């Protein structure tokens, strides 16, 4: 098929005027649609061949220029000819916004200004309307305005969005004098008199946009257009530069003195890369998709040609490149802001307003140093400060922390240009390492200063192991940030804990922090705990090796270094134990305590665990996780303190019964003895005092009312969970039915305790993660889930059908691949076999697993459910029907094979957040 050109399309209309607008559109639109399609196909082919995003965007913009001109000429020639136009029958068609820059993404809007001499006439109104109808018929998203020159000037003076749009106005065709008049007046009457206002408005607009899209440039699903470090940030820089420096083209920024030639090359490289990603996104999705989601990252990485290397997959290497570009955009932003401050065009910053407790000076030298206070910021006293003494590259940030002042962008630029000075000599310099350790363990704002070091490139050069994880993402749904950003945020959380913030969310760590003796070791361990991510070996073990190497270099004692290495090696132990083990089983606590060994380590590990989880991302920390960690801490504290943990089971049961009896003063002795005899010893040992009292009353009331299948529920706002208690005749598929009903009703199970009475009744407690902040909303949801469980247990609904209704209907390739694993261990519990199952999460997975366990004739004593993004880790404490552990190798092999088959049956289903 030959390539259509605008002149060919116009020729195809014929010489005879087509006076009917409908007829004209019917003749014109099909050819224009083909012209658009051919242009997009050619642009995509060019992008895949050359991998140049800017060339693609410019090609699409040029094609759109031809299309708009073709539409205009067809309308004027056939519908509204003006052989002798009056002074009012003049029109200039102008591209504005992104289209005005001469770049257009495949799914972008087409912004047009129809410029008039003074007021709209019948002719110009008809022409504009006819053009728009054609463009709309082509399904183009058209942003348009019809204004006179006077209108434009008046509205630009009052509206910052219109002002910005006109800043990038580009003449397409029509009356050139109109356009020239507009640009001259706009420059003289608007731009020349309002630079500070424009800069302030654009920077505030940027802050609001970034906050909406996600405050960090290191979010693992970034917004390419509006996110921090995205294209809009580059646009904002250029808008400000055009406004303040009165330049027309980006290349003029060097001549204006805003950028060095190398910095402008960086600007151009960032712009091209972001345009490349954006164009690929639009082509792949067929729409104006700006968010680089997980399912798209792999596709874009393949289209760009990113392949796996050095322990990173192709998609992880692509995203690392993306985040490095986002960082570079941030550096350019700092450069522009510094220049603007020099011109008094924007407000000066402070290091951190929350910690602005130090008295500052506007300027002056700092005694005995190569640094000065320059307009309330730390700056170097001369260009040779780092060459003369490379330790100053670390001292710069130490001074910023000590004086609680931001660093002057000129100093940051000089530091970045001086990175070659950071070699083995500086890395092993005792003074440099002392200063760094002071920064890391500062009681001011270490997170802020470390981030400045990282953005300047100093941190990664000074600690090469940290440099390996800069901008590194982990391709999963659990981690919200890049590895380096996660580590810096962990330090921030640790500082918050030490200063007593958020005590209501994690009271125990706030309480124990003052008694910690190894504060320096704790800060170093938090900083290093994920430093070995992305390596072939286990990152905890590899991280411990790195810690043993860096500890002495930082100036830590041998004991401190050993503590840091131990914490890094075991930084996941407390979280995994708390969330996936039965904390009421003495074997769990004993095993954990044997690894921890001392109270000091227990305190350090708890604080590190809280900081780690809280820094993963929004919504990851929950009150339920906090409660589990506190329970594990207190149970282990008793063991490490030499408490009476070996008390005879019979004695512990007796004490539990006595506590419950005291809670039920209105019960007769006969009633209580009869109730107590119904429970096995495990019930008294595993349930807490409050739950035992609530369940006793619940069972008594249910039996008085004659209900054999019933439920009750209560919310716990602090823990962020809702507890459902189920009373029902016991049978092997009971837990499967409960989990299926929860899945069908949208209940996300995080824990389960299962008990059977001596008379064959099941008393099960199901813990659901909270879905609503308001108790009344959460209770309504809990009631819906509870009723669903009752109906399922009474046989009023077929649970398999309900669960199937929640499964994905449309099959597609998976974004994530999590190989399923099943481990069977008899050493983790003294009475049950522990089965741990991990694999790709999906709706109804827990129901399928409990159904499989029921068919295997296994009794489930407790279940512990953890989800790490797309990965599910479900742990079941089970026995055979005889109440004994599963020890036979053949039986274990059957269990393992059956559970793995659960994952094979759904291999083509897409990953979603599961309901149970």
Automatic annotation (TrEMBL):
SMART domains: HDc. Pfam families: ACT, GlnD_UR_UTase, HD, NTP_transf_2. SUPFAM superfamilies: ACT-like, Nucleotidyltransferase, Nucleotidyltransferase substrate binding subunit/domain, Poly A polymerase C-terminal region-like. One of its GO terms (biological process) is regulation of nitrogen utilization. Residues 483-605 form the HD domain. Residues 1-365 are annotated as: Uridylyltransferase. Has four distinct domains: an N-terminal nucleotidyltransferase (NT) domain responsible for UTase activity, a central HD domain that encodes UR activity, and two C-terminal ACT domains that seem to have a role in glutamine sensing. This is Bifunctional uridylyltransferase/uridylyl-removing enzyme. The lineage of its organism: Bacteria, Pseudomonadati, Pseudomonadota, Alphaproteobacteria, Hyphomicrobiales.
